[in-house]
From TrEMBL, chain A:
Protein name per the record: CBPA2 Carboxypeptidase
All residue ranges annotated as the Peptidase M14 domain in the record: 98-390
UniProt cross-references to Pfam families, sorted A to Z: Peptidase_M14, Propep_M14
UniProt record, GO biological process: proteolysis
Gene: Cpa2
Record keyword Secreted present: yes
CC cofactor: Zn(2+)
UniProt xrefs under SMART domains: Zn_pept (SM00631)
UniProt xrefs under InterPro entries: CARBOXYPEPT_ZN_1, CARBOXYPEPT_ZN_2, CPA_M14_CPD, M14A-like_propep, M14A_act_pep, Peptidase_M14
Keyword Phosphoprotein: no
Higher taxonomy: Eukaryota, Metazoa, Chordata, Craniata, Vertebrata
Automatic annotation (TrEMBL), chain B:
Superkingdom of the organism of origin: Eukaryota
Gene: Lxn
Protein name per Swiss-Prot or TrEMBL: LXN protein
Pfam families: LXN
Gene3D superfamilies: 3.10.450.10
GO cellular component, one term: extracellular space
UniProt similarity note: Belongs to the protease inhibitor I47 (latexin) family.
Coiled coil spans: none
InterPro entries, per database record: CYSTATIN_LXN, Cystatin_sf, Latexin
Alphabetic keyword roster: Protease inhibitor, Repeat
Signal sequence segment: none
Ranges where the Cystatin LXN-type domain occurs: 1-102, 119-191
Length: 395, 191
């Protein structure tokens, strides 16, 4: 069935349409009836009548356009949307398929921690503007088990990452006990998830500048604000691919770990002492990368990381066909110093990967909310593949 | 003498972004939005005293004709040493692109029938939404940004249109339509 919008130019054409309206065998369903020349007429036409109605309109020189190409498609999609929405209402009041404020995200972290005994919300530090840095700890027991680190939103404008991290947290929590892979993973290892690694920047993207990337720290001697937190780690700090200019979006900061958001993570991981994997989410470009960024030479574990990366990319692709490119940071995108996974790798955490999620530039940072859950789902498959490998190697 | 490049890595992707900018400028419009589905192949040739030339095979999509695949080849030459000269681009589209006559006419008539000059901002909005009636305006922004991206690219930049910050229709005494855009471009490499 098609829905046409007909634009009549005069009374004569209106009369023609009223004539059409009277032909019952066509089974036309006028959503807006023909009444006056200035008003558009919308009519649903059963498939069988579409060609003859169009032929009639064209022969009379009456202008029309296709409002809905295929009504069934629209109805199917709507039904699906409503079912999914109902499903969401039933399972949780938090809509994982929408973008949320920091307050709402923190509330959901509390909700997850209260609903699942093996999930705890811990605070590992404070941002520059004194916002708590909340990490979800997934632990089913043991004492300082080998652990996996996962963070999102270090660059605040990359909204699909914080949103995906929430979905992933909920997925892991709700699937423990029923999904064999997640269950065996959490029975052996702990998972630490930092969904909003740069809360000051994140709030700023909501209140003032959607395109803000850096932290919000004041820089002595400069009118510009903020440091690129992914150029601030102690790995080739200050080298190529980072700027020494405070107003630059890739300003590395006055010194390594000058940003409290970075230092808090560094201290936490060092004090823990038993991390086996360090995974970080960014957007956009659809890439799955491993060290190094600060230099263009291959890491010692190149073969294993490349192979694992390809397997993870393959898992990602299996869901919706989304392709992620795999490689070292330097070869895949560009040389960039002071990055987090270079630091973690050089500090003994072999399985260090950086993901760049959807898309490849069509919407970029402004990824429509209806892509959050598909992005989260496919990314999760890639993360899971890596985590399974880490689990198997750590036991 | 041309070196094969991994199409998945950024050096090739940067050249593809330039080709896409140029192509959008040439062939885009309110009724046609061209996007890159896949870069199939890329080669680079270093030409003494001239510059670096990239040979590309691209698979495109016309957003208003999604079921079809459009193939295209492009050559992007970055002139040696010149920081002010735009890359030289040649593009060949295989086959015909879907006609935009109907869509262009509809857009033209709709804008002409507005009581006041069109003004809009933040396209897409923070959540990635574009109201359907602003989609042609968004596609027109891709044309404009295509020109800017082509003119301002070097071998070490990768530009994307991040957002239409503001668009304002300019009142004219003739029958042409004119829009002033303020665009946000994202440069990947310097981020």
């Amino acid at each position: 069935h098609q829905v046409l919008r007909i634009k009549t130019k005069n009374e004569e054409e209106v009369k023609q349409l009223q004539l059409l309206e009277s032909l019952e065998h066509l089974q036309l369903d006028f959503w807006i009836n023909p009444s006056a020349p200035a008003l558009p007429v919308d009519v649903r036409i059963p498939a069988a009548s579409v060609q003859s109605v169009k032929a009639f309109l064209e022969s009379q020189g009456i202008e029309y356009s296709i409002l809905i190409e295929d009504l069934q498609d629209v109805l199917d999609k709507e039904k699906q949307d409503m079912a999914e929405s109902a499903q969401r209402q039933r399972s949780s009041s938090f809509d994982f398929g929408a973008y949320h404020t920091l307050e709402d995200i923190n509330e959901e972290l509390d909700h997850l921690a209260s609903e699942y005994s093996f999930v705890k919300k811990i605070q590992i530090g404070e941002s520059y503007e004194k916002r708590p840095l909340y990490v979800l700890k997934f632990s089913t027991g043991g004492s300082n088990r080998p652990a996996i680190w996962l963070d999102a939103g270090i660059h605040s404008r990359e909204w699909v990452t914080q949103a995906s991290a929430l979905w992933i947290a909920n997925k892991i929590a709700s699937d423990y006990g029923t999904d064999a892979s997640i269950t065996s993973l959490l029975d052996k290892m702990d998972l630490f998830l930092l969904p909003v690694a740069n809360p000051d920047g994140f709030v700023y993207t909501h209140t003032s500048n959607r395109m803000w990337r850096k932290t919000r720290s004041k820089i002595p001697g400069s009118i510009c604000v903020g440091v690129d937190p992914n150029r601030n780690w102690d790995a080739g700090f200050g080298g190529p691919g980072a700027s020494n200019k405070p107003c630059s979006d890739s300003y590395h900061g006055p010194s390594a770990n000058s940003e409290v958001e970075v230092k808090s993570v560094v201290d936490f991981i060092k004090n823990h002492g038993n991390f086996k994997a360090f995974l970080t989410l960014h957007s956009y470009s659809q890439l799955l990368m491993y060290p190094y960024g600060y230099k263009c030479t291959r890491p010692n574990d190149y073969a294993e990381l490349e192979s694992l990366g390809r397997a993870a990319a393959s898992s990602i692709r299996s869901l919706y066909g989304t392709t992620f490119q795999v490689g070292t940071i330097c070869k895949t995108i560009y040389q960039a110093s002071g990055g987090s996974i270079d630091w973690s790798y050089d500090n003994g955490i072999k399985y260090s990967f950086a993901f760049e999620l959807r898309d490849t530039g069509r919407y970029g940072f402004l990824l429509p909310a209806n892509q959050i859950i598909p992005a989260a789902k496919e990314t999760w498959l890639g993360l899971k593949r890596i985590m399974e490998h880490v689990r198997d190697k750590s036991s | 003498r041309a070196m094969e490049l991994p199409p998945s890595h950024f050096p090739a992707a940067r050249a593809a972004a330039v080709a896409m900018g140029y192509l959008r400028y040439l062939r885009g419009g309110p009724g046609r939005g061209l996007h890159l589905r896949e870069l199939r192949r890329a080669r680079r040739q270093d030409i003494d005293d001239v510059g670096h030339k990239y040979y590309l095979e691209l698979e495109l999509e016309d957003v208003l004709d999604k079921d079809r695949t459009v193939s295209c080849t492009a050559e992007v030459l970055y002139p040696l040493g010149s920081k002010t000269s735009a890359p030289d681009v040649q593009v060949t589209v295989q086959g015909e692109l879907r006609s935009t006559e109907e869509a262009d006419k509809e857009f033209y008539n709709r804008i002409r029938s507005l009581e006041k000059e069109l003004v809009a901002e933040n396209i897409p909005d923070s959540h990635g939404n574009v109201p359907p009636e602003l989609e042609p305006i968004h596609r027109l922004a891709w044309v404009a940004s295509g020109y800017l991206i082509w003119q301002n690219s070097t071998e070490n930049t990768k530009f994307h249109l991040a957002q239409v910050k503001h668009v304002k229709q300019v009142k004219r005494s003739d029958e042409d339509l004119q829009f002033d855009y303020v665009l946000l471009l994202h440069e990947m490499v310097s981020q």
